[in-house]
Amino acid sequence: MKRNTAVFSKVSSIGWMLISAFCFAAMGALSHEVAVHTDWLGVVFARAFTSLIFASAIAVMTSRPFILFSAPKHLWIRSITGTCAMFGAFYAYTHLPIAEAISIANTTPIWMALLVSLVTRESLSAYVWTGVACGTIGVVLVQQPQFEQAGLAIFAGLGGALFSAIAVYNLHLVKKIHPTTIVVHFSMVSSIAYFLALVVSSLATPREMAWTGQVLLGMLGVGILGTVGQLAMTRGYMAGDPAINAIVALAQVAFGVGFDILFWNRSFDLISIVGIVLITSPTVFFAVEQRVAGRRRDMTSPIK
Q1: Which of the chain's ends, N or C, has fewer CB atoms near its CB within 10 Å?
Q2: b/e per residue, 196-235, with b = 16+ CB within 10 A?
Q3: For residue range 98-139, what is the model confidence (pLDDT) as tens digits?
């Protein structure tokens, strides 16, 4: 009975992670399309504000507290770096082909490994160094054909991945705070930041934005897809093995490639394919290392 429950839990977590991967890839594709007709800052604001509405509704229904200025230091760091991460990610989504943008966003495990090594002052393992080398080479291969036109978007995506690693690291330092409260705080901070950035951008460089019903519906879709993806990812990580889930999450890249081919009739040359594979491979390296380390601990722990 316990074995059947464990198998069901694993299958369930993989299902949630696949739903999450599809939603995040679809969010990136829809962001790319909507940004053609309006300011990309409006798209990222829609993503954050929709999340704020949903998270606030959940907080009210479950009687969770709202905190803003009284939040602890690490929650502020998590929200601010998370806001910066979404800035970088959405700039990449709206200025790069979807497959490349999603691939670059998946360099977060590389930054996380480097960050943890820096904080703990521990040397990096061979798995990590191999992953860092593969990811770096992959980024170079992906950027080659379009660096002059999209160099800023590539660096923005990499910066977003770095800030995402910092945000996730600080998330582990606020475990005593309920997840709903954390999401509400992040959504409030990011919504305010994106709204102010949108206003400043509109005043500094006025541009004609088509606020049609189709555009507004697309922006709402971006927000809903992002929120559903976040909720599905949370359920997936709660129900299953984080190492396996991290690998399943790479399905985002496959979905992104599919959207590029289906909606933009894009073809991929060998260099781009190799680059995408190399960028996403570190997640597999790190997941394997985590599984191996876990089995070693199980084998060496005393039997009770």
Answers
A1: C
A2: ebbeeeeeeeeeeeeeeeebeebbebbbbbbbbbbbbbeb
A3: 888 888 888 887 888 888 788 888 777 777 788 788 888 887
